[in-house]
């Protein structure tokens, strides 16, 4: 089969996730056929640097034979068995032990799921159940953040704060509220605030929401250490300490969604470690298996776990694929390789600082209002060079830049006019150089294209 054959069948039968079906049908999908290291190769033979590690998950890169072998060996031994009805199997037990060893000291239990969305469904059930068992059943409200992404099941969608998602498929799960996100460039800068004051204001907004709902009614606050899909939003340094203080003051659980930040992305095993958070629950997925097989889970702190265990009786929740043996075996091997190769330390001490230095230089580009990164996550905020302000949304400059990136051999994603990267954690210095060079070329091409568009009406005006 050739590219047009795949595209025809794809158009006829395949409804893609997060996609305008009709528009894609007209344009045709790009067919990705192979992966090697940090590169993907499409059906036309183009070699593309995957600046997004798939969807924030292929942390060890493509083509790791050890992971393939781990899957094959486990499938020969026991491809599937469940963890219901008083049974388990070696991969699930070993993975649970390894995760709890790598996680901060008070997180000693894990509940497995098939994905990050299922992990956040589990979170919602657990926090409400926890407070019910504690004799405070009215503590049901969960506070999330605007523009947050916590998955696409009904609970994930409700916990998340993406307005276009909320506008489809409601009503949402009741008793979930949202507060402002600590996105200084998008929201604090325009209000003329310095970043640290803005970070404190965001924490104050959380406190105000708690008081509005009544502290006796609020179960938990959920947030990513660094917001990924929302636009690689790295909060000001003042934000997390202030949020921690608010949560402690009102005895509200902290859920740190580590689906992206976990497993080395910020240069520590978990984003919570980077920021000194002590979350009660940590949903995980994505990098857990480097995306080779689907698996997620929730790491549960002693406070919640002890209550669920000692006072809870049966917890009526779980998935057919909770702790799937083949997925667990691959995740376990993935973590073993990361430890053996010192991947997390290399992100912290070498690759993160190197990317930061190269990435900062893009901040001087006329289209870029801010270049930020932490570990191996980064963002560029696009602005109109003429005014220093954001472009009109209708110009869809971010999408244009993303398409030009793809054309120049780089996957960089756009969230509005924020360009984001999250490359595999095994990227080399030379590959980081290539990534930055291609990003710069795409910015130049975007600027050239905009110059054409913006000058066109003048050419049409009769002199
Ligand atoms: C991707 C993501 C999820 C959802 O994970 P899925 O495996 O796609 O269900 C949840 N939270 C965050 C922070 C994510 O980035």
Automatic annotation (TrEMBL):
Its cofactor is pyridoxal 5'-phosphate. One of its GO terms (cellular component) is cytosol. Pfam families: Aminotran_3. SUPFAM superfamilies: PLP-dependent transferases. GO terms for molecular function: pyridoxal phosphate binding; transaminase activity. It comes from the Bacteria. CDD domains: OAT_like. Keywords: Aminotransferase, Pyridoxal phosphate, Transferase. Belongs to the class-III pyridoxal-phosphate-dependent aminotransferase family. This is Putrescine aminotransferase. The lineage of its organism: Bacteria, Pseudomonadati, Pseudomonadota, Gammaproteobacteria, Oceanospirillales.
């Amino acid at each position: 089969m050739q590219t047009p054959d795949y595209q025809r069948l794809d158009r006829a039968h395949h409804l893609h996730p997060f996609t305008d079906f009709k528009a894609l049908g007209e344009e045709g999908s790009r067919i990705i056929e192979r992966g090697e290291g940090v590169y993907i190769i499409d059906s036309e033979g183009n070699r593309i640097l995957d600046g997004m590690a798939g969807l924030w998950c292929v942390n060890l890169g493509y083509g790791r034979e050890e992971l393939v072998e781990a899957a094959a060996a486990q499938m020969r031994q026991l491809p599937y068995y469940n963890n219901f009805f008083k049974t388990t199997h070696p991969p699930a037990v070993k993975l649970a032990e390894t995760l709890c060893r790598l996680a901060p000291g008070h997180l000693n239990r894990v509940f497995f799921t098939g994905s990050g969305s299922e992990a956040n469904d589990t979170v919602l059930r657990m926090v409400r159940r926890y407070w019910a068992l504690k004799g405070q059943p009215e503590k049901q409200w969960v506070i999330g953040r605007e523009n947050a992404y916590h998955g696409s099941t009904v609970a994930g969608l409700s916990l998340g704060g993406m307005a276009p998602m909320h506008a489809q498929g409601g009503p949402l799960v009741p008793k979930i509220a949202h507060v402002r996100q600590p996105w200084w460039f998008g929201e604090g800068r325009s209000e003329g605030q310095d970043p640290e004051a803005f970070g404190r204001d965001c924490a104050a907004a959380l406190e105000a929401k708690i008081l509005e709902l009544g502290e006796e009614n609020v179960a938990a606050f959920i947030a990513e250490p660094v917001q990924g899909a929302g636009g690689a939003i790295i909060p000001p340094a003042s934000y997390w300490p202030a949020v921690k203080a608010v949560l402690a003051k009102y005895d509200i659980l902290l859920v740190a969604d580590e689906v992206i930040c976990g497993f080395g992305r910020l240069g520590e095993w978990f984003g919570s470690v980077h920021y000194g958070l002590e979350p009660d629950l940590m949903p995980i997925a994505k990098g857990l298996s480097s995306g080779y097989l689907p698996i997620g889970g929730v790491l549960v702190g002693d406070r919640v776990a002890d209550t669920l265990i000692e006072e809870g009786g049966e917890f009526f929740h779980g998935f057919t694929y909770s702790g799937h043996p083949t997925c667990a075996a691959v995740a376990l091997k993935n973590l073993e390789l990361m430890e053996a190769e010192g991947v997390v330390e290399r992100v912290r001490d070498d690759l993160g600082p190197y990317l930061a230095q190269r990435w900062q230089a893009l901040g001087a580009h006329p289209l870029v209002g801010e270049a930020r990164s932490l570990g191996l996550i980064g963002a560029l905020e696009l602005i109109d060079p003429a005014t220093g302000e954001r472009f009109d949304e209708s110009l869809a400059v971010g999408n244009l830049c993303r398409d030009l990136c793809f054309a120049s051999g780089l996957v960089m994603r756009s969230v509005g006019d924020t360009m984001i990267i999250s490359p595999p954690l095994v990227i080399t210095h030379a590959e980081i150089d290539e990534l930055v060079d291609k990003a710069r070329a795409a910015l130049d091409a975007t600027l050239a294209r905009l110059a054409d568009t913006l000058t066109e009406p003048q050419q049409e005006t009769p002199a």
